[in-house]
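Teaching assistant here, posting this on the class forum so everyone can see the example we discussed in section. The complex has three components, and the goal was to see what a joint structure prediction looks like when all of them are supplied at once.
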Amino acid sequence: MRKIIGIILLIIIAWGIITSLQEMPFGTSRAKVADHYINKGREETGAANIVTSVVVGYRSLDTLGEVTVLFLAAIGLGAVLATIKRKEDRDTEKASLILSTGCRFLFPPILLFGAYIFIHGHLTPGGGFQGGAIIASAFVLMYLGCHEEKKINETGSIISESLGGLVFVVIGLIGLTIGTRYFLNNFLPKGEFNTLLSAGIIPIIYIAIGFKVGAELSKIIDLLMEES
Amino acid sequence: MNEMINLNPVLLIVVPLGLAFLTPLLGLISKKIAKWLPVVGLLFNLIVALAILPHVLKQPIIVKIAGFAPPFGINLVAGPVGMLLATLIALTGLLVAIYALKYINEGAEQKYHILFLLLLTGATGVVLTGDIFNLFVFFEILCISSYALVAYLGNRAGIESAVKYLIQGSIGSSLLLIGIGLLYGQFGTLNMADLAKQIVSSSDPSVFVPMVLMITGLGIEAAIFPLNAWLPDAHSSAPSSVSAILSGIAIEVGLYAMVRVLFTICHVSNFFMFFLFLGVLTVLVGEMSAFSQKNIKRMLAYSSIGQIGLILFAFSISTHFGVTGGLFQMISHTLGKALLFLSAGYMIYRTGSMEISSFEGIGKKMPLTALFFTIGTLSIIGLPPFVGFSSKFLIIKAALAKGELLYTILMGIVLLGTVIEGTYFFRVIQTIYFKGKDVATERNDSPIVCLISMSIFAVLIIVIGVYPHLVMKILNPAASELFNSIQYIRSVLG
Amino acid sequence: MSFLHNYIYYIGAFGLIFIGLFIMIAKRNYIKVIIGLSILETGVNLFLIAVGYISNGTAPIFSKAGIEAENMVDPVPQALVLTAIVIGLAVLGLVLSLAIRLYKHYGTLNLQEIKEQRW
């Protein structure tokens, strides 16, 4: 019964969407807003990666919201799982020497790679979220490979996630008080195009996001690992 | 001019966000600080919102984020509607946060306060933003924090209803996102004013389909019949302070977003009959389900569905009067329902049961709380001199001013819903005051902090009820902003 | 053929969306519903990316001096998808934590058996 209703509902939606899609054939020319970003984005934000100039420049309030959503997820997860009693001992086999050594060996390069990704967010593909995800993946590796030392430093993660968010907000508020007086206004000099020290506040914000996302994703993984 | 810059509406979003980010850091120093941060943040919001409100009545303030002119950057539109709702959110949030100082005393308290503050920030963002995708992002902040807050107590009912809420809510937000994607694909812009300028007619299938998807997605959060299955469970299993916010703010913000899509972006003119019937149906379903409830919080939750139906009905009359009435009903429902949930919260806490029958004699045990509960019920039913009367009266006037038989008949059905509402609420009042044996029970009222917050709600309900033109001065420009999309487009795009 | 050429990416994306929606409506196991939700979100993200594509497009990054702006794809959907992915991840984390709690309370993840809340 449920399935039949579902199928009927989906057929109706599908029919509607097909009629709507006829207006927008695939792969045609860009929209007006996008043209502006690609042609003017370099001068207006100073970032070589136009996606970054959209994410942290033109649509930076979305990014602030996005950071908040991730923060919310970490907090919400903690609140939902808070009242459960922790199971301390589980029957787990200790990882072999090769595995745990290999993980420990790989851990620093992965962190370094994550940092590279978010520091170069305005020049190459990538940015704060991607770099943060790579950093979190290093922690996943440690959880899976080196079982006995699985704790992340809780104070450290709280500090980096809070400071990451605060840096974003405070930079925005500084923009509100100096220069052209807009929130998140790019008040720093844009520097030489396509070099590391360019694009004003964009790399600073991406570094803050990188720390924050790395800390939050690791925390989410930590909470879920302890419960399961 | 200088003053205007200092009081940038973006502060209403950013300062609470900053406080929320700061909370875990302060939590390392002291565990006691966390519960004061929502109070501080929302008090700040209330003051700033009240200071900005007079300015926007003449002309909306357009805030360009990062200095990029619309449609290229994101912009906030602090018009009369946005600021009116932002003030309402800050006020309700502040009073509920004061209540929660005492009420929330178990579980991960620090996390509760962060989630609470972020929920209200998300709601403020939704009502202020002028960009459709940004609206989606803030909407998700609102939704995700309410999912987590519904599950906050961690009991069986809470988790189960959070699961239901989350599944239905995330289907809704996916539909919303598909709708946004379809609109972007055709019009190449995400700015609401720019979209409104380019959309000629909503009956064109290429606009109609994304509109239906977006309305469905937002309708799930607004709990319009038949998308309301999650609401009674979620609102009744959450802590009472959270239920007050969910009923008073969250669903109304959903409805606001829906109305914004309908009126401003899509210029809907010919589907209002559909929404009119939907509104009447929602009223009837909500009130009739509420009538058969024995659990006080479920009863209040179903009554919220009925009230949302009434607001939708008022908007769908689609005259200036009707929209004014709808906005006024939003205010009166927020104040009334928040007061009801807060007072019911301590009545449940003291009796240890949600069954209405267990409230016998509570009028003597908790006289003030029972009084506030009574004020709330009378206002929701719509008796003078409370605020609910003025708003319902305005809606009736708007429906009659339309001068068509159909509107009169539908209005009659809605009034029938009000009669049902009156019946079940009077049953509760009767239980509270007149039932039970006359034994001298010890007085054990709610804590003083909670009484203060409830009394401010009660005073507001009476004051606005007696002097409705206090808010009418704001409601009139607000209604014309919502109703007149040409004016909106001109003020944003210049 | 030209129909397929024009719409194949949309068909793929909406195929995923419908599969996800169908799983969420029809299946009664909570984990399967979560899987459906992920498929749905992936479909939506693919759809957004497809909206911004232009034929023979390149990534919108000026990494070298001589790159033409002519063929760059629309950067906006990519920024939107970045946001949508993060939101999807947040919802997924919350949904999984609720699944853990649900299992501890009821000992089952079959939503048909978890029906304490009723009208």
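For the discussion questions: Chain C touches chain B at residues 17, 21, 24, 30, 33, 37, 40-41, 44, 47-48, 51, 76-77, 80, 83-84, 87, 90-91, 94-95, 98-99, 101-102, 105-106, 111, 114, 116-117, 119 (CB under 8 Å). The domain at 2-106 of chain C is CATH 1.10.287 (Helix Hairpins). Think about how each of these relates to the inputs above.
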